């Protein structure tokens, strides 16, 4: 009969008795403590400081005398936030990509005399951390989070959700060490269980340097094993160790053949990590043995595990995102040779928090903060400027996709004094800037004219002086900028603009609008006519009517492009390819030949003579290449369009396509290391990102695959073969296509069903490419039971927790695991069946940049990390070590 531990983890609260030792780099803030005050807490020796330098709102309060007497000192004061919806602490001075434990503590203590327990939210940056509910005014609660900041600050925000005034008692940050784990999510530590302990005290005074809480846990029917004389060493691969007092006790079932069962149930779908700690506490004699397997929800997970005497080992269970389950049942089952029952000394349960909410682009967020400080703005300007949308800063408008950018800033009638600050120049996406009705003085700075997107600039009714920059006047007279400068008595404004603006501004504005409107109307009409002509044209055209192709060509290219991208005769093409001597590739379009023009190597793509499809693709590609140019797209050098001979001439990509290098081994190919792989992935992603966001209308590539990623002599990657590409409308509409085009294995499953093409179809294909880059396996691999798609395979590996096996073994473990792990996450998100769950290319580029930064950081790092990964490599129990490699929470002290 198994005895089991059953925990309901839906809503947890703890009695906080937080202990620890002070260390440099640790930040301990007693919220509400008067400015400039600090003290050393008598039990822990930790130095607590006032929160005054970390926040500019809220009021300081104290708990009731009775609660003051029964709790630690940092609970005496608290900061309460009666005004504003979101109030944020800004913790400066944190280190990027370093794992921290962030602990927030709360004791209501009837500080407001209302005896009414509030309920509110805590956010970290733009992400919801938790909703706090109190059950007792005199019971403190805390939340612990393991988090790697992606910026050099952390915002901790208290959010009023209409159910009481938020408050906070203390904030503590503890450095865990260089981050070894994924940082696209953070984990909340729900519980630390000290099994087998009958000690009533949760207090781990100075034992646990991070001050983590270890709660004694014992269940009827379990036996307690204790060895008071051991001080379990961590095994080599461990960096965080629970305190010895926790490891000295263990729980075990009474009978040798019984299992030890735990189940954790949540009232929501939960992705969790569970760390099991083992240390043998008995000296076993020769005829005794203890070994056990662990199963999760009835399936084998890990084992056989044989705890070592006086040594701490651990295993981490990762549930994957894909499982979507809310109950976890763990069973420790004795193996058939075991003479002793299973044991566990300690368990930690972590809840994975999705911290992937978008935030304002870094430099723009910094600029906004500087503007706030410079003008002493006291609106709701706290935390991230643009996100979450509900708490966005007053007076701002932001773009809403991908990394958020500020498009409008309205500081009208805000009592601004001084000059127009240069931080505004960092808001490069600004379309509207309104600084009217303030007391700004000084000159109108030139940088305002450099804001390329600016359409509205209102400086009306200030005290500005000097000349108006010419560039602004010019843009205004061209009708691209609506400029208001009136009621600045000392402004020297020679053009009629100022007077006109002051006296007759409404009329002028109307004129501008009118002109703009008529221009757009004419443009729309023109486009419509063109589109109609085009439709008729294509419908009527016979495939071989090459004369018309040529005509269309000239129409579209215009003289400017004509001169840049040369047109060649068939004779010249024949010469440059030495009479079509060397074939370097074949595609749906036709054959590609090697050529030389003026000592420059080129690739000449000939349209196969019979190919009707080829003809249309040719047109598509010409259309696109004529208007796009990007370092990560193969560039067009020239073309030939002579009767039946149609060719496109590209820059020559010396190192062939990505697939050869990933899948083949020969003298031409090269085994890329992880940094190189990431660089290639990023190059390709940037090419696609440009097609999606840099082109108007956006372009869908439609055939993203490894063979279409070409590498030049420096192994710089470029997307090629835009032959299947189509532009798609910008108004959010999707494009219904009639022919399903693309390559099996890379085809968006949603598109296959719906025929609806969006940029997310490219994202899917790119996800597959990324998986190939990570695994070194083809999109569709042969498996024992027939063919298996790479995403299915990776999914199954993740489900088994078998993360190490995913990565191309030829890399021999030489990579930053957090970087790979993150890339896997991006790839898996990209291949989601539902397109709405896939990220945008912009997000992917951002993520890949961070992956690359992590990998580079490792390479330029101390030998500490190196030894660790070497040690890991030499481990024979690969699973345990792979888990170590992808561990997230407790890096070294
Ligand atoms: C805190 O210290 C700073 C610098 O010494 C001083 O300027 C400020 O007035 C002090 N604040 C209070 C409330 O004493
Ligand atoms: C950051 O930390 C350094 C050293 O610990 C300190 O001198 C500096 O004032 C801190 N800066 C801020 C903004 O807290
Ligand atoms: C632990 O607490 C329980 C009830 O709170 C009490 O009955 C028991 O005696 C305590 N045990 C020890 C060892 O203090
Ligand atoms: C109980 O906890 C105290 C305080 O941490 C510790 O000193 C003592 O060793 C613990 N006793 C046992 C049996 O674990
Ligand atoms: C356990 O290991 C520690 C070293 O980590 C050692 O000091 C201690 O004596 C060992 N205890 C026993 C009982 O072997
Ligand atoms: C193991 O050997 C000891 C003597 O060394 C003996 O007393 C004990 O019964 C044996 N246990 C088992 C399970 O065979
Ligand atoms: C424990 O796991 C090992 C290795 O997978 C397996 O061979 C053995 O049958 C398992 N034993 C039990 C009792 O599940
Ligand atoms: C900001 O967006 C809102 C809602 O879309 C719009 O009404 C407002 O005019 C915008 N403000 C500026 C300055 O563009
Ligand atoms: C405007 O600026 C001038 C100097 O540039 C100053 O003399 C004058 O007092 C200012 N007027 C107001 C209303 O601030």
From TrEMBL:
Top-level class of the enzyme under EC nomenclature: transferase
SMART domains found in the cross-reference section: S_TKc
Localization annotation: Membrane
Lineage: superkingdom: Eukaryota
InterPro entries for this protein: Kinase-like_dom_sf, Leu-rich_rpt, LRR_dom_sf, Malectin-like_Carb-bd_dom, Prot_kinase_dom, Protein_kinase_ATP_BS, Ser-Thr/Tyr_kinase_cat_dom, Ser/Thr_kinase_AS
Pfam families documented for this protein: LRR_8 (PF13855), Malectin_like (PF12819), PK_Tyr_Ser-Thr (PF07714)
A GO cellular-component term linked to this record: membrane
An example molecular function term from Gene Ontology annotations: ATP binding
Listed transmembrane segments: 512-538
Organism lineage: Eukaryota, Viridiplantae, Streptophyta, Embryophyta, Tracheophyta
Catalytic function, reaction form: L-threonyl-[protein] + ATP = O-phospho-L-threonyl-[protein] + ADP + H(+); L-seryl-[protein] + ATP = O-phospho-L-seryl-[protein] + ADP + H(+)
Annotated membrane topology: Single-pass membrane protein
Protein kinase domain ranges (all copies): 578-871
Chain positions recorded as ATP binding sites: 605
This protein's name: non-specific serine/threonine protein kinase
SUPFAM superfamilies: L domain-like, Protein kinase-like (PK-like)
EC code(s) of this entry: 2.7.11.1
Keywords: ATP-binding, Kinase, Leucine-rich repeat, Membrane, Nucleotide-binding, Phosphoprotein, Receptor, Repeat, Serine/threonine-protein kinase, Signal, Transferase, Transmembrane, Transmembrane helix
Leader peptide range in chain numbering: 1-20
């Amino acid at each position: 009969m198994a005895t089991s531990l059953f925990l309901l983890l839906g809503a947890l609260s703890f009695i906080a008795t937080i202990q620890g030792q002070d260390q440099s780099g640790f930040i301990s803030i007693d919220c509400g403590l008067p400015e400039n005050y600090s003290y050393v807490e008598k039990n822990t020796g930790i130095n607590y400081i006032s929160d005054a330098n970390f926040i500019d709102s809220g009021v300081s309060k104290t708990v009731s005398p009775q609660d003051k007497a029964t709790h630690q000192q940092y609970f005496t004061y608290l900061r309460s936030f009666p005004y504003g919806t979101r109030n944020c602490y800004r913790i400066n001075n944190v280190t990027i990509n370093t794992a921290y434990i962030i602990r927030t503590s709360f004791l209501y203590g009837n500080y407001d005399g209302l005896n009414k327990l509030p309920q509110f939210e805590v956010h970290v940056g733009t992400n919801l951390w938790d909703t706090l509910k109190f059950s007792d005014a005199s019971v403190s609660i805390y939340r612990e989070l393991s988090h790697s900041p992606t910026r050099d600050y952390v915002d901790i925000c208290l959010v009023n959700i209409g159910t009481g005034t938020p408050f906070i008692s203390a904030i503590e940050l503890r450095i865990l060490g260089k981050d070894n784990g994924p940082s696209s999510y953070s984990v909340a530590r729900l519980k630390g269980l000290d099994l087998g302990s009958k000690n009533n005290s949760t207090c781990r005074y100075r034992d646990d340097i991070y001050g983590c809480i270890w709660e004694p846990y014992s269940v009827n029917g379990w036996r307690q094993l204790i060895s008071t004389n051991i001080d379990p060493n961590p095994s080599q691969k461990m960096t965080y160790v629970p305190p010895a007092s926790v490891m000295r006790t263990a729980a075990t079932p009474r009978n040798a053949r019984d299992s030890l069962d735990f189940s954790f149930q949540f009232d929501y779908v939960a992705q969790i990590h569970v760390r099991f700690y083992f240390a043998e506490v008995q000296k076993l004699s020769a005829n005794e043995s203890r070994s056990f397997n662990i199963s999760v929800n009835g399936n084998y997970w890990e084992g056989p595990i044989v705890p070592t005497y006086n040594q701490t080992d651990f295993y981490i269970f990762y549930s994957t995102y894909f499982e979507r389950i809310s109950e976890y049942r763990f069973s420790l089952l004795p193996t058939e040779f075991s003479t002793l029952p299973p044991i566990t000394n300690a368990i930690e349960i972590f809840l994975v928090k999705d911290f992937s909410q978008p935030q304002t682009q870094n430099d723009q967020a910094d600029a906004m903060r500087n503007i706030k400080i410079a003008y002493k703005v006291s609106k709701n300007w706290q935390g991230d400027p643009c996100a979450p949308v509900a708490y966005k800063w007053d007076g701002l408008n932001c773009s809403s996709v991908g990394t958020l950018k500020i498009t409008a800033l309205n500081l009208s009638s805000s009592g601004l004094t001084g000059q127009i600050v240069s931080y505004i120049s960092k808001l490069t996406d600004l379309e509207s800037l309104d600084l009217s009705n303030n007391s700004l003085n000084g000159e109108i700075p030139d940088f305002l004219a450099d804001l390329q997107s600016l359409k509205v600039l209102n400086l009306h009714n200030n005290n500005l002086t000097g000349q108006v920059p010419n560039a602004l006047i010019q843009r205004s007279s061209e009708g691209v900028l609506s400029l208001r400068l009136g009621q600045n008595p000392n402004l020297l404004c020679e053009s009629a603009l100022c007077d006109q603006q002051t006296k007759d501004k409404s009329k002028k504005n109307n004129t501008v609008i009118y002109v703009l409107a008529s221009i757009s109307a004419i443009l729309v009409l023109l486009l419509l006519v063109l589109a109609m002509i085009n439709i008729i044209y294509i419908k009527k055209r016979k495939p071989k009517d090459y004369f018309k192709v040529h005509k269309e060509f000239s129409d579209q290219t215009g003289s400017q492009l004509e001169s840049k991208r040369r047109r060649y005769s068939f004779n010249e093409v024949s010469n440059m390819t030495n009479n079509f001597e060397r074939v370097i590739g074949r595609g749906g379009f036709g054959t590609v030949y090697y050529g030389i023009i003026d000592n420059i190597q080129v690739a000449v793509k000939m349209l196969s003579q019979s190919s009707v499809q080829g003809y249309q693709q040719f047109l598509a590609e010409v259309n696109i290449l004529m208007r796009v140019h990007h370092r990560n797209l193969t560039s067009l050098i020239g073309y030939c369009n002579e009767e039946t001979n149609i060719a496109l001439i590209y820059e020559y990509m010396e190192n062939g396509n990505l697939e050869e290098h990933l899948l083949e081994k020969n003298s031409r190919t090269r085994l890329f290391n992880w940094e190189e792989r990431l660089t290639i992935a990023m190059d390709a992603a940037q090419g696609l990102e440009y097609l999606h966001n840099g082109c108007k209308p956006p372009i869908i590539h439609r055939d993203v695959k490894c063979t279409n990623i070409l590498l030049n002599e420096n192994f710089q990657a470029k997307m090629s073969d835009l032959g299947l590409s189509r532009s798609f409308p910008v108004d959010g509409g999707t494009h219904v296509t009639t022919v399903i085009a693309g390559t099996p294995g890379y085809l968006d499953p949603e598109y296959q069903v719906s025929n609806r093409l969006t940029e997310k179809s490219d994202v899917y294909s790119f996800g597959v490419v990324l998986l190939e880059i990570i695994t070194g396996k083809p999109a569709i691999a042969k498996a024992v039971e027939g063919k298996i798609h790479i995403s299915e395979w990776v999914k199954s590996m993740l489900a088994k927790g078998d993360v190490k096996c995913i990565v191309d073994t030829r890399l021999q473990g030489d990579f930053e695991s957090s970087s790979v792990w993150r890339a896997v996450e991006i790839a898996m998100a990209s291949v989601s069946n539902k397109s709405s769950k896939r990220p945008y290319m912009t997000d992917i580029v951002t993520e890949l940049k961070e992956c690359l930064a992590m990998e580079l950081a490792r390479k330029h790092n101390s030998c500490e990390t190196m030894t660790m990964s070497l040690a890991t490599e030499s481990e024979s129990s690969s699973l345990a070590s792979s888990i170590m490699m992808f561990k997230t929470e407790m890096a070294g002290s």
